[in-house]
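Quick one, tokens below:
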């Protein structure tokens, strides 16, 4: 059973200053997890985690991970700007983007970030708009269906990302001719895998590709980026990944493929977001309404603006009713928000303890792709983000939005100048 990292007593104290809804993150859990990842890949001297900023784009969170030795994986101008403001540059930034605007490439070159090209045509485009760096990475898509012994994991052939193998070979030759000195390989073939096989299987594919690229192009390959894809068990009956077993599986593939090929000095990179943050974030909300029609509904003061995944993907997020952890789950509810959309539901037909108005609900595993995917439909305003620090004090790390924020992009006009805040 999933257990929240905050108690009802803590939430009662927090809400004296910060009303629900809010996202809250567990600093202690984040740091311990980052150290565990580093330990799992300690066999590789060049190992580095590049935290996927898109998952939780908050400078306080990024700083915690920076202190634990992580870099950042950026995919946009604003993510690059945030990273720059936090003192990150050069090899601390991996820039992985697609359909990339020229100005984003220019900014990445300005910061001397490691640029990961998503498409063969981007070689010419990058050279034209920002110039080619001496170190570059290319993203590989093998096409077809990606399988492990556990079965089909995803369908890269339908994904918009990456070079074909033929394009990788030709691209490395062109880049080498144009003066690029060192290379990296990147690939992302499956999302949110709860399987210890994913990374070792992917690593084997990329390690064999690295040997082939070296042999056919003469490229000096310095790193292989396994990207993200390691998932978390959103459901309480799912078995979590064993990061130590994953690291060991990658090590075995490394020693079987790269070491005999004389490529044992290659660094391994990761770009994890969900694995780094999801379990260490909760969306905390209050039950404010109940409805009894053809089904039983509990309405929260949070909605899909605060957590889009259930509405967008039908994703499962576990729910704990604080103070009723030991009560029988003998009531069936749809847990909803207040958007004018019928898919604004955090849970459907979920068996939970009897919920009363005023009860506090914790929605689990919202630390990644939670707040980050928020939006303002229906004029809804996004909630605050809080940090439960290691000393158990609470710090606001992003304030809740206000109507003034919502209307701020009309500041060029006086048409709404009579609004009172």
């Amino acid at each position: 059973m999933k257990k929240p990292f905050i108690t009802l007593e803590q939430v009662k104290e927090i809400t004296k200053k910060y009303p629900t809804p809010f996202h809250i993150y567990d600093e202690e859990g984040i740091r311990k997890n980052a150290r565990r990842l580093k330990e799992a890949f300690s066999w590789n001297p060049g190992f580095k985690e590049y935290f996927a900023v898109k998952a939780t784009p908050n400078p306080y969170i990024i700083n915690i991970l920076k202190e634990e030795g992580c870099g950042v994986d950026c995919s946009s101008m604003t993510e690059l700007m945030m990273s720059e403001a936090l003192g990150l540059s050069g090899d601390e930034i991996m820039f992985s983007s697609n359909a990339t605007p020229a100005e984003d490439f220019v900014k990445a070159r300005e910061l001397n970030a490691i640029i990961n090209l998503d498409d063969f045509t981007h070689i010419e485009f990058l050279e034209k708009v920002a110039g080619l760096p001496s170190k570059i990475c290319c993203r590989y898509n093998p096409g077809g269906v990606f399988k492990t012994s556990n079965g089909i994991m995803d369908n890269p052939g339908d994904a918009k990302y990456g070079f074909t193998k033929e394009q990788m070979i030709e691209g490395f030759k062109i880049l080498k001719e144009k003066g690029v000195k060192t290379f990296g390989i990147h690939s992302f073939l499956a999302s949110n895998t709860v399987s210890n096989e994913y990374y070792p299987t992917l690593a084997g594919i990329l390690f064999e590709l690295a040997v082939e690229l070296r042999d056919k192009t003469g490229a000096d390959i310095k790193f292989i980026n396994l990207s993200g894809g390691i998932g978390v068990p959103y459901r309480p009956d799912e078995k979590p990944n064993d990061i130590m077993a994953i690291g060991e599986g990658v090590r075995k593939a490394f020693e079987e493929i790269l070491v005999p090929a004389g490529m044992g000095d290659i660094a391994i990179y990761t770009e994890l977001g969900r694995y780094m943050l999801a379990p260490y974030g909760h969306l905390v909300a209050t039950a404010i309404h109940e409805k009894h029609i053809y089904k039983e509904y509990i309405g929260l003061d949070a909605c899909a603006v605060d957590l889009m995944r259930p509405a967008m993907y039908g994703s499962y997020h576990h729910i704990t009713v604080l103070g009723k952890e030991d009560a029988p789950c003998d009531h069936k509810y749809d847990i909803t928000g207040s958007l004018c959309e019928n898919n604004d539901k955090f849970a459907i037909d979920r068996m939970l303890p009897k919920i009363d108005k005023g009860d506090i609900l914790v929605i689990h595993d919202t630390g990644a792709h939670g707040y980050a995917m928020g939006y303002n439909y229906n004029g809804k305003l996004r909630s605050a983000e809080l940090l439960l620090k290691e000393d158990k004090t609470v710090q606001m790390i992003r304030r809740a939005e206000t109507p003034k924020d919502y209307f701020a992009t009309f500041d060029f006009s006086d048409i709404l100048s009579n609004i009172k805040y």
